[in-house]
Structure prediction request, 288 residues.
Amino acid sequence: MNESQYVSAMLERTYRAFDRAEVERIRNMTWAVAGLGGVGAITVELLARWGVKCFRLLDMDRYEPSNLNRQLFATSKTLGRWKVDVAAERIREINPFAEIEMQIAERVNNDNVDPFVHGAGMLVQNADYPSAKLFYLAARRHRVPLVNGYATVTGGRVQVFDYRTSTCTTFLDEWWQRLKFGRRKPLTSYDPEELAGFDRENVHATAPSINFVTNLVGCLIVAEAVKLLTGKGRSVVYPYYLEFDVFQWRWRKRHVYSPWNPINWAALFKTLEKQYPSQRAAQNQKKA
Prediction:
C-alpha cells in the first residue's frame, strides 16, 4: 500500500467531518510539539492520526515509573527511555510515512528554540517549566501560532496565541512577568545553565495528577488547533482562554486580565505572598 492509499484509508472517517482541503492544510504543515508528558503525548497521538506529515519533538525527560499513571507512551517497556524517541516511534507506528524532522532531548534554550519554532505551522506548547516562556517569545518573533494547555488536579486551561495576526501581549503581561519573577535580565540572554537554575528556583511543587484530566487537556489542545487552522467552530484566542473543572462540571471562557475573574485574583495574591512574605511569616522564620 502506497502513502496515498494508506492515508486515504486512515482518514476515511475524518473526511466525513472535514473536507479534503481542510485536512490537507493540517497534514501539510510542520507541527512542533514541546513537552511529551501527560498532556503532550495525547496531542502527538491525535496529530499522528490526522496524518500529519512532519513533526518536531522536544522534551528533556526520560520515562520513569511515576509517569505510568497518566502518560500515554509510558509502559514497562519504555521506562528509562527518552520521551522524544518513544514519541517518534509511536508516530511511525501510526503513520509510517510521517517525517520526524527534529528530536531534541534537552531543555529549551536560546540555541535550540529558534530552529525548533522557525518554519513550523503550529507550535503545541505543553512544557511545564518556567523557561518554556522562550517558546512564546520565539513564536511571536517568527509569527507562528501557538496552542498551550495545562492540567490542574481536577481540570485545566487551554489557550490559543495567534501570533500570525497579533503580538498577543500588553503592558499587563510585562507587569505580571516582572511581579512574578522579579527584576532580572531577559530570558533571551540566559545560557543553558542559567535557564536550568531559573527553572529550579521557580518550578511548581509536584502536584497530584489524574489521567483522564491530563489527557482531556491534550484533546482540547488539538481541538483548538484544528479549529483555528480550518476556521470551523470558535477558538479561545488570546486574551481569552478556556477553563474547566470536570469534578464541578465547570466550563468557562475567561479573560486573561478580567477583574471579575476570581482565578486572576487568586494568582495575584499567591504571587504577592511569594514575593513579599507576610510579617507573620517573617516573624515565624526568625523564631525558627
Summary: The chain has one domain: 3-257. Strands lie at 30-34, 54-58, 99-104, 122-125, 146-151, 155-161, 240-245, 250-255. DSSP finds eleven helices and eight strands in the chain.
